[in-house]
Amino acid sequence: MASSIFPQSKLEPFSVGPFQVSACHGVERVTEGQTALKKKSDGRLYRWDAVVDGASATVAYAIWNNGQRDVRAVRAEGGNEAFGKLAGRLRFSIRSPESGPHAGKSRVFAQLRQARVKAGGWSTVHVASEAQMNEGAGLDVGQVLRGLGAYAYGRSEDLVGTTNQSRNQLCVVCDEDEPRVMVAAFLLSRALPILNAYPA
């Protein structure tokens, strides 16, 4: 196990709606893991346990030696069938803005699609509006993210200058040493809509 690169103040327990979230001790080293962009690399997993009545998950913030970052569930138990299948699926990549007002400021962003439950107890991710994201999570997603330190939450084109086909996806921007925002973003865009059986 290695020590955390994140400041201790960023490892304090926090809540995301009904989830109580706490950092796990130690850092897990990974050899020849796979990033969210499907590249092989060694890396480190910084893990948080998220607990809600009847279900729990371990969410990992991965920092890879090739420079990539992502967030993923490494464990999911309880809840409905789709929640139990969340581990290893529906991860998202974290990147540095190359343009827009947040570029060059030691900040990172993640594009957020929303998990929705379909027949057979599986879930897939979909482009969502802010209203749909709030409905699926049962919370004001932007308010929660900003309360944890996010600089901005909105369309990728507006915040980080995205010009490709993903420009209308929602994204969140925060400091690169603020892991709680990205862990919360995973719970808000993946775990909670699945637990709430938000339909595809």
Describe what you observe in this structure:
The chain is an alpha+beta fold and about 200 residues long. It is built from five helices and twelve strands. Strands 1, 2, 3, 4, 5, 6 and 7 form a seven-stranded antiparallel sheet that branches. A three-stranded antiparallel sheet has the order 8-12-11. A two-stranded antiparallel ribbon has the order 9-10. Helix 2 (about 130-135) packs across helix 5 and helix 3 packs antiparallel against helix 5 (about 180-195). It is globular, with a radius of gyration of 16 Å. The chain starts with 13 loop residues before the first strand and ends in a 5-residue tail after the last helix. The mean pLDDT is about 95.
Count of helical stretches: 5
**What is the gyration radius calculated from CA atoms?**
16 Å
- The overall pLDDT, averaged over residues, is 95
* Tally of DSSP β-strands: 12
Question: Could you tell me the strand content as a percent range?
Answer: 35-45%
**Uncertain stretches of 5 or more adjacent residues:** none
Salient structural properties:
3-stranded antiparallel sheet; single chain; 38% strand; 200 residues; 7-stranded antiparallel sheet; alpha+beta
